[in-house]
Design a protein that fits this description.
Length: 209
């Protein structure tokens, strides 16, 4: 019997590519990098800059000190497009009797803008952001899971963790003895070894009954 659901945000509640990615200061930052950073490194940074904090990115990619200063002076975390909409089957969550907690990893301002724009608070008892602004450690959701098991006095096996990322949430959940469902929306690659696989929240009714 499941007493609680912990759900991830991106690719579970929302397709991050369904709206244009906000450029904010990032366009200017890439222009600054044009001459001094090689294109391979730049491509990597483009992928990281929406998910990870600036200090870690600058350090990992060994950006020259002078350029770092210029980047830091203009850097701003963007906010999601006002057109962002959750997957329509999110309404199913409202009908589920379990305690529902949203746990999302990312830049605080960016993730918060998604929560507010899509009114995700309506669907969850609690929304928690696993902030990456000042850390480069991907495995920190485990700490949040542990804290919430204790806070709500739950046995790990009574909790279903829904997410698309093995590293961000599913493996940490499994290691704690929680049940796992990989969300396979938007061509997420299926990884073996989890308890359930879902493409829609419709499938939760069967899993949770
Ligand atoms: Mg995700």
């Amino acid at each position: 019997m499941f007493k609680a659901i912990i759900c991830d945000l991106d690719r579970c509640l929302f397709n991050p590519h369904s709206v244009p990615l906000p450029q904010g200061s990032f366009l200017k930052i890439f222009r600054l990098m044009e001459k001094e950073v090689d294109s391979k490194k730049k491509e990597k940074i483009k992928k990281e800059i929406y998910k990870w904090g600036l200090p870690g990115i600058l350090k990992r990619h060994q950006i020259p000190e002078q350029l770092q200063q210029k980047i830091k002076a203009i850097y701003q975390v963007p906010t999601v497009s006002p057109q962002a909409k959750p997957y329509p089957d999110i309404v199913i969550l409202k009908k589920l009797p379990q305690l529902k907690i949203l746990v999302t990893t990312g830049l605080e301002k960016f993730q918060n803008s998604k929560i507010k724009t899509m009114h995700l608070e309506e669907y969850f008892d609690e929304c928690i952001i696993n902030k990456t602004d000042n850390t480069s450690n991907l495995w920190t959701k485990k700490r949040i899971f542990k804290k919430n098991l204790k806070k709500h006095q739950l046995n790990p096996a009574e909790v279903l963790v829904i997410g698309d990322s093995p590293y961000d949430e599913l493996i940490p959940a499994k290691e704690l003895g929680m049940k796992t469902a990989q969300s396979l929306r938007d061509n997420v690659k299926k990884v073996e070894g989890f308890d359930y696989y879902i493409k829609s929240f419709d499938e939760l009714k069967e899993i949770l009954k």
